Amino acid sequence: MKLGWDLTTGLDRYLTTWRSPGDPSPGDYTFGFDLRGVPEGFIRRDGTAPVYRNGPWNGLQFSGEPEMEPNNSNFQFEFVDNASDSSVQRYVWPPGGQGWSLYWSLPRDQCDSYGHCGAFGVCDTSSGSAACACVRGFTPASPRDWELRDSSAGCRRVTPLNCTGDGFLQLRGVKLPDTTNATEDAAITVDQCRQRCLANCSCMAYAASNIKGGDSGCIIWNSLLIDIRHFHSGGQDLFVRLAASDLPSNGDGSRKKNTVIAVLVSLSAILLFGFAGFFIWNRLFRNKGRFQSAQRFNSFDSSVPLTPVQLQDRSKGKEDEAGQSSDLNVTLFDMDAIAFSTDNFAAWNKLGEGGFGPVYKVGGKNRQIMHVTCANCGYMSPEYAMDGVFSVKSDVFSFGVLVLEIVSGRKNRGMYSSGEQTSLLSQAWKLWREGNALALLDEAVARAGTHRTSEVLRCVQVALLCVQERPDDRPHMAAVFLALGNPGAVLPQPRHPGYCTDRGSASTYGEWSSTGTVNDVTVTIMEGR
User: Fold this and answer.
1) Considering the domain boundaries, does residue 518 fall inside one?
2) Hey, which of 90, 263, 323, 399 has its CA 20 to 30 A from 225?
């Protein structure tokens, strides 16, 4: 069977779908080859609208079909009963086989839908679903639509090209963009192709046209790059033109980047050690207080009841210490009575200990007391602060907050001049959605002009990925390190961060004081088992 054009007679050989499995009249979809630019196959609806593109021929296979193996033989073809969703299925009869076997079927997933991620967008299915991301040096053209998972508007450049000092970003293992308006020269080398593209200010990207026996030939795109997808195996290398400020750093710039990463890692380590030291000191201080309180209980008799007392807000000062009630309305039990009931917090009355403190039996009865301490939670993940659930993703959240503080020069908690945002996370998320994340940069650094725009945006994007509300959405630290150290890596778009609420909205967790402080509260709760 032959598909494609007969250049002598002008005959176009193409496939047309049936109207339905039981109706062989022509359907709405066709599969054939387009001779404009570099020839490649298209599935089209109504003869015009592209639905799927298999990429140009690279000497071994079509670049969008890495499943094609060059040395298969004994293929036979016949019409098969396609599903009613108009797919293209290729069947083979293996040597010695007993029937037809499905070799491949198209489209495979959403990334096979033509232009799914728009211009300069890359489609990837590594997360289990079709996810779109912008090529490095580009940002969503319509952030609001991207939040709604509509990326058809594609991406726009962060820095316009000026034809001076431009370079190329290498995308590995991708399906080459639509070549309808591209040009091909099979007689030159890839290095010559690079120089030709640099000399042409309208050149957007280039790639080798033949990868058989080593890269050779040249394909040049002078318009928008549409319909790019990433493969985990197979695919080709594509070189996308970027402005000098958006190019990955190398040489001295690379050392500066490594220095920044080292500083971030060192600061996070210092922060973790500081938390550990404070935790140990706090535990020792609390145990000392319990011991001193327990010395006053020797004269107690067994009839001492657990009497509820009113919690005092430490931020109220002397008036609260004098006995005036606060507005927290949290019921506690007298510390002396609790210590007596637990036999001075004896080890044999201790049931266990977790992130919220030790749990004790009360007087040997079937009751339990939990001692809880809630400190400043600016770096604490939502699931730990709210539910006491801790995992490796909790530290990732803290690291993301730290990165945002380093980039902005501001603390996470506090009021901001916008009048709407109550935390650094809220401010960063708002600016990111508006496509103005660069405004988060420390004013002193911005005035100095020593920063790279692409590095700032990448740090903000990585930080927002780390502070996403759902732990499963946050990356592992290994992935964070690779993202910071590999400027060419394609990053997903971050989702809503934790603790991100707007002042006055119905979903706010509470109001913050003008000084941005959070009270330290100690809570003891009795609950039945």
Assistant:
1) no
2) 90
